Amino acid sequence: MTALVATGCAVLGLLVGSFLNVVIHRVPRKASVVTPRSACPGCDTPIAGRDNVPVVSWLLLKRRCRHCQAPISGRYPAVEVLTGVTFAAVGVRFGADVLLPAFLVLTASLVAISAIDLEHYIVPNRILLWTTYLGGPLLVLAALTQHEPRDLVQAAVGAVVGFVLLLVINLVYPRGMGMGDVKLAAVLGLFLGFLDVGHVLLGLFLGFLLGAVGGLLLIATGVRSRSDHIPFAPFLAGGAYIAVLVGQPILDWYAG
Q1: Which residues contact 119 (CB under 8 A, 6 or more apart)?
Q2: 251 Cβ partners below 8 Å, 6+ apart?
Q3: pLDDT in tens, 137-147
Q4: Which of 39, 73, 244, 255 is the most buried (most CB within 10 A)?
Q5: How far from chain centre, in Å, is Cα 13?
């Protein structure tokens, strides 16, 4: 059953990843993610269905538009593959648990937010709101069916903990922590808190650890200088995702 769920999640992730490419391109530009149809940015020709198959179309088209031969960024298949892989891992983690849809919503959100923050240095409120609108009711459904209603209280506490901890850092050092990261921490706290507050603290700790290591590597390799801004949302997302997948074994190990 777990293998079947993971396979289904992987296929779903590829399809969702194709949609996330639209989100990543349009949300920073404040455009609709529904209309108009996706089109080549070079010649503005609408993309046919046969040219919109995740990963496969990019390979068959040899990374170029069918009509104007403009190059197609490798970001598109990368996002699709990343979403497929991360969805599959979440499928393995939760199996047929009713929590699975909620954490797939979170995973898709983290992929989109990370890509946007890397390119535009923003964490869009629009994505955070939709993550809450979609994921919140799914958490409520999980609590009322296979889990405990008290898990919703933990989720609320987790959201407050995530928000307050990063807000304090923002107030102390606003240049190093934007309000977008603070709001993202609240959303992460909501989902991780449903598992328990320990997952919230672990996810934030791992996010800061990844941020410290990643920042040092970027500076050491010359990709960024000490004065450059380094987007933090991808590291927060990575820490939260690790906490979702293997947080409980880590917390059990830490507890001795």
Answers
A1: 24, 28
A2: 198, 199, 202
A3: 999 999 999 88
A4: 244
A5: 12
